[in-house]
Amino acid sequence: PPRHQPPPPQQGSAPELPPGFRFHPTDEELVVHYLKKKAAKVPLPVTIIAEVDLYKFDPWELPEKATFGEQEWYFFSPRDRKYPNGARPNRAATSGYWKATGTDKPIMASGCGREKVGVKKALVFYRGKPPKGLKTNWIMHEYRLTDASSSATTSRPPPVTLDDWVLCRIYKKINKAAAGDQQRSMECEDSVEDAVT
């Protein structure tokens, strides 16, 4: 038998995408074309969003778990509940927790109906334990379906219940002051090089 066999393709391996492909979906596209289809067990337009239990990892570990992405990463995640019969989600992670900020933003369908198809919640990652956690620059947008958008048309119960899956977009916010300092530092280096030459 050969000593070196190529590893089997992984479930999260990158899909075959055309050159120059960019994935910048709108909130509505994420809910209607990805999350709603995932909840209904319907094939997705492209297999580009990895399934990861986000709360088993810290945010800086997530980019390597993603199927695709450079500055922002998308995941389907099961929505774990804090208490078995409660409605509150459990958002504790390995070395911190995700804290919701602001109010939920409704996601409306475009077109003449303008029905509410989902909800977007913004969260920030804090290191440590509440209420004394230290705020980080890691941000999550959590998309979930509304009751109307997840209801089945048959009398049979839907294959998943509301909030079994959420779709999350994770990114690290760049500190504008630090970015400005870095830019000024680069400009100074350039002017010093110009002066020397």
TrEMBL record:
Gene Ontology terms for molecular function: DNA binding
Residue span, NAC domain: 17-173
Entry protein name: NAC domain-containing protein
Bias (Acidic residues): 188-197
A biological process term (GO) from this entry: reproductive structure development
Source superkingdom: Eukaryota
Subcellular location, record wording: Nucleus
One GO term describing the cellular component: nucleus
Chain spans, region Disordered: 1-22, 178-197
Record keywords: DNA-binding, Nucleus, Transcription, Transcription regulation
Signal sequence bounds: none
Pro residues biased stretches: 1-10
Main localization of the protein described in the UniProt heading: nucleus
InterPro entries on file: NAC-dom (IPR003441), NAC_dom_sf (IPR036093)
